[in-house]
Amino acid sequence: MPHVPHVPALLVIDMQNALMAIAHRAAETVAVIGGLRARALAAGVPVVTVQQQGKELEPGTEGWRIVPELAPGDGELIVPKTSADSFLGTGLDEILKGLGVTEVVVTGFATEICVDTTARQALSHGYDVVLVADGHTTSARPEGGELAAPERSLAHHNEIFRHLDFPGRSIRVLPSAEVDFAATGAVNTAL
């Protein structure tokens, strides 16, 4: 069976000012994604910034803008979306296929909603998935509410993705330090 090389793209989902204002460990997550973004760009790996828009995230407003540390440069790919699914009603699939991408490295906000939905949809669209264990976050919220505490939710989703089985697809959960864009132009498969 011929070896099909992994051709990765880094997805940066909804890292917007208004959302980071309510995010758990926002600064740490921005720093992790910023490091991955720099490494991807240095290795010639495409970075696709996905940007939510809607009632509370009106295009052009300060809250809608991508945080300055992750703001796409001239010519970088930006995909606007209006749902939790970064593929639904957007050109994301066409962009990735046009670039020859076979694997998406998923980061962003919010773990249980847009990150989870997009990662699962990527599998359904034929992509391998790397969920960056320390590269996604959720909203800050108190213990004892209806939603799981942030750290518990992050750990839960990382563990779920470690156990997902999707025939014909590779699904990995890696800390950002183990994502290696430069070694071969692909994500390092060593665990």
UniProtKB/TrEMBL annotation:
One of its GO terms (molecular function) is hydrolase activity. Keywords: Hydrolase. InterPro entries: Isochorismatase-like_dom (IPR000868), Isochorismatase-like_hydrls (IPR050272), Isochorismatase-like_sf (IPR036380). Gene3D superfamilies: Isochorismatase-like. It comes from the Bacteria. This is Cysteine hydrolase. Residues 9-140 form the Isochorismatase-like domain. It comes from Streptomyces daliensis. PANTHER family: PEROXYUREIDOACRYLATE/UREIDOACRYLATE AMIDOHYDROLASE-RELATED. Pfam families: Isochorismatase.
